[in-house]
Write a structure and sequence with these properties.
about 350 residues, alpha+beta, two-stranded antiparallel sheet, 10 strands, globular
């Protein structure tokens, strides 16, 4: 059902945003619940269907349905759901079954509205590079448009009421997806984690634990939603991101200063393997990708763009490969397809 989306890279991969050498994307989400219904975990089938219909009506009135498509989860396969998750448009939460559940995806794949997961409504917006403000502006506009047709659960003291205590308040969360090979090579992840935590933020690996994240990809996000306005959350997270980017640049310079030939060898070997591999598992592929992206950023790799590298990353993820091979769970088939994809991309 999502074959067209599979062949259409999301707009936020285009590397047009600020600090594209270190930042892949910025993402924000707003969580909302309808005042007259229980949370999805406690709602029955009729209530879930009523919630879904009210949200769809509000989206239609707001004009969103003319800009994308709504997919009932019952119509999507596990690989398709995985692909949406890998594109950061969908997240699997705590509600079982498919009744009354679905996700709206904007045509450019930079906006989604998920219905009846852990909460009734979760709006997501993404943008290339460090464009936190633009993600918030888009979220706010969609939230206001939907709110004109929906009554949100709101408490004068606590703010927006959500299924998780961690999102009560503004119910606004923001993330910055960062490529940090310099800090990783310099052994600075633990110090970075301590600094981030002290300022009420979190950092975690995109594809694994912080200290074992393949591809040197990390997500920085706000740890609290209560007690700060959306603008304050954005300001403090952006400041933390800027500090992290500056530390990454210093670390890259240090690595270059200590051993240019060693870095050149790493990048050259990565390019050679990418051009000749016949099997690539996810961890090895992400390691190659990180070296090549670092090579591009440091001027040691020519002929490619950050946009190309970003698109290679997305296409190499497991659910994307499951959809291409049409062999769910066949790891060898995925490794062959991933290697083919790298050879074509870096030939």
């Amino acid at each position: 059902m999502l074959e067209t989306l599979l062949e259409s890279p999301p707009a936020w991969l285009d590397a047009s945003g600020l600090e594209a050498a270190c930042v892949v994307n910025a993402r924000g989400s707003l969580t909302r619940n309808l005042a007259e219904f229980p949370f999805p975990q406690r709602a029955n089938a009729n209530e879930l269907e009523s919630i879904e219909q009210r949200v769809l009506d509000a989206m239609q009135t707001a004009g969103l349905m003319d800009e994308g498509r709504y997919y009932p989860l019952a119509d999507l396969t596990p690989p398709e759901l995985g692909m949406l998750s890998e594109r950061q448009l969908f997240a699997q939460g705590g509600t079982n079954g498919f009744t009354g559940r679905g996700v709206f995806v904007h045509n450019d794949q930079s906006l989604s509205v998920q219905v009846n997961d852990s909460d009734h409504l979760r709006i997501r917006a993404l943008a290339s590079g460090l464009q936190l403000e633009s993600t918030w502006e888009r979220l706010n506009a969609v939230d206001d448009a939907l709110g004109r047709g929906l009554e949100y659960a709101f408490d004068a003291r606590w703010g927006y009421l959500t299924a998780a205590l961690s999102t009560v308040g503004t119910a606004f969360q923001a993330w910055v997806l960062m490529h940090l090979p310099g800090i990783t090579m310099a052994g600075g992840l633990r110090q970075l984690e301590e600094s981030v935590t002290a300022k009420r933020h979190e950092i975690r690996g995109l594809l694994g634990p912080l200290h074992e994240s393949p591809g040197d990809l990390f997500e920085l996000n706000n740890a609290v939603t209560l007690g700060r306005s959306e603008e304050e959350i954005l300001y403090h997270l952006k400041q933390q991101a800027i500090e992290t980017i500056e530390e990454e640049k210093r670390s890259r310079e240090l690595v270059l200063h200590e051993g240019t030939h060693g870095l050149e060898d790493r990048i050259g070997r990565a390019l050679g393997i990418a051009r000749g591999a016949r099997l690539l598992d996810l961890g090895e592929a992400m390691g190659l990708w990180s070296s090549l992206r670092l090579g591009l950023a440091s001027g040691m790799l020519d002929g490619y763009t950050f946009k190309q590298l970003n698109e290679v990353l997305a296409a190499a993820l497991p659910a994307h490969l499951e959809m291409r091979t049409e062999k769910p769970g066949d790891e060898r088939a995925q490794n062959m397809e991933r290697a083919d994809h790298f050879r074509v991309s870096f030939s």
